Amino acid sequence: MHQTVKILNIQQVTHNVRRYVLEKPAGYRFEPGQATELSLDEEGWRDKKHPFTFTALNDWDDLEFTIKSYFNTGGDGMTERLFGYGPGQKLVLRDPWGTITYKGPGTFIAGGAGVTPFIAILRQLHKDGKLAGHRLIASNRKAEDIILRDEFEAMEGLEVTWTVTDEPNATGVLHERIDEAFLKRHVRDISQNFYLCGPDPMVADLKAALGGLGAKAEALTWEKP
Description:
This is FAD-binding FR-type domain-containing protein. The protein is an alpha/beta fold. The protein has five helices and eleven strands; from the N terminus they run βββββαββαβαβαβαβ. It has two domains: about 1-95, Elongation Factor Tu (Ef-tu), domain 3, CATH 2.40.30.10; about 105-220, Rossmann fold, CATH 3.40.50.
């Protein structure tokens, strides 16, 4: 099922990430961590489906998506064209789907925009006062790429670890790649739940590394096709 919804507001989050607030159809619901497929409501684009994660909570009046824009696509990229949209223009919204759902306290490991499925989960836990015992580890190229840094750092009970790979002089962050050696140094409890999201090669490497360190397969959650 699909329906058109209006863009209500757009805000800049980082230099290439924006917050899009959309109309919420009556009765529309999703689980924190889930996604949907959006399309641009214009000729030639309505059948081009692109997955985006909900970053709002279900009790909000509107829908929210936190979307990274990719440029230099020759005009063929959905996020590049979406960057030119403004409030009042419309998108095509479809049903929710996804396998990144909350299973209990643990560590969330993200690469770049892979943090977006975790936003609603952590926001819900924060709203419910249940963030104690959770940790977010996020890797980005540069400190300016970190999504919602101030919000995450202000969440009471959430332990946050940032690492950047291409900015050796950045302060307040680590300068390490998230690999097996990183996990050995920085993860104290390998028996906990792990939530993984990022580029496919990163997720595959993390699954292998965590498995090699003794994490149980059922404790690993990632987006499955």
